[in-house]
Amino acid sequence: MLKHLLAVLAIAGALISPASSLEPTSAVFVSYPITKKISVMGSGVHIGGGVYLSAVHVVEKSKGEVTFTDELGRPSKGTVAWVAPRYDIAMLLGRADRPASELACRPAKLEEPVTIQGNPLDMRFIRTHGTIAGDSPKEGKGPRWPESYIIDATSAPGNSGGPVYDVYGKVIGILVGGYSGFPFAIAVPSATVCNLLGRPIVDPQ
Fold it and tell me: What pLDDT, in 10s, does the model give residues 38-93?
């Protein structure tokens, strides 16, 4: 009986263990002040070598300087290196001695399982899960990106610029938007980002 009770308690403890007990990921909290009382906050990801990615609309008011904070709460300075407004992708430079994830230079697959991580609604390093549901519409109302896909996972303001991870922990996209009131997120494919960075695309098929 005692062994059974201890086993139940152990399982319950595992189910409610805090996110901080997980290994720190490459995701970062991006912030900078625009007035003495107002700051802009969003998400980003370290892809190695001190190179970080985010969304243009997250960093566009930063005057070139931001603060990165990792999952361990360590702040560091970052600078905007270049932006691609048409794709809503920004590259930033910062400390190289932070957790990093490889940028997957391959096409994403329909129904591929993914994990979104970011900082929605002033919360920190929230993970949601879904699959790649299809390409974003190129016509109709609302913002449009020349190359993007829809994920059937919940996102909110503050998630923008954050990573979309594949099942191997590689960055398969950068989140740039969503649909208000619907559990869908929009991401720019990592293959598009690799093209912007001049990296070759590898098609596993």
Answer: 999 999 999 999 999 999 999 999 999 999 999 999 999 999 999 999 999 999 99
Pairing outcome for strands 65-69 and 39-46: unpaired
**β-strand pairing of 171-178 with 163-165:** antiparallel
Report the SS3 class of residue 21: helix
pTM of the model: 0.85
| Residue 25 placed within a domain | no
Find out whether 155 and 164 touch, Cβ atoms under 8 Å.
no
149 contacts 189 by C-beta, under 8 angstroms: yes
185 belongs to a structural domain: yes
Q: Give the domain extent around 125.
A: 113-197
Number of H helices, E strands in the chain: 3, 12
Report residue 100: phi and psi, to 5°: -135, 155
Provide the token pair at 105: 């230079």
- H or E stretch at 86: none
With contact defined as beta carbons under 8 Å apart, do 186 and 136 qualify?
Answer: yes
**Domain-located, residue 193:** yes
Considering the domain boundaries, does residue 139 fall inside one?
A: yes
The count of structural domains within the chain is 1
Q: How far is CA 144 from the centre of its chain?
A: 19
What is the CATH number for 179?
A: 2.40.10.10
Rounded to a whole number of angstroms, the distance between the first and last alpha carbons of the chain is 53
Q: How far apart are CA 149 and CA 136, in angstroms?
A: 5
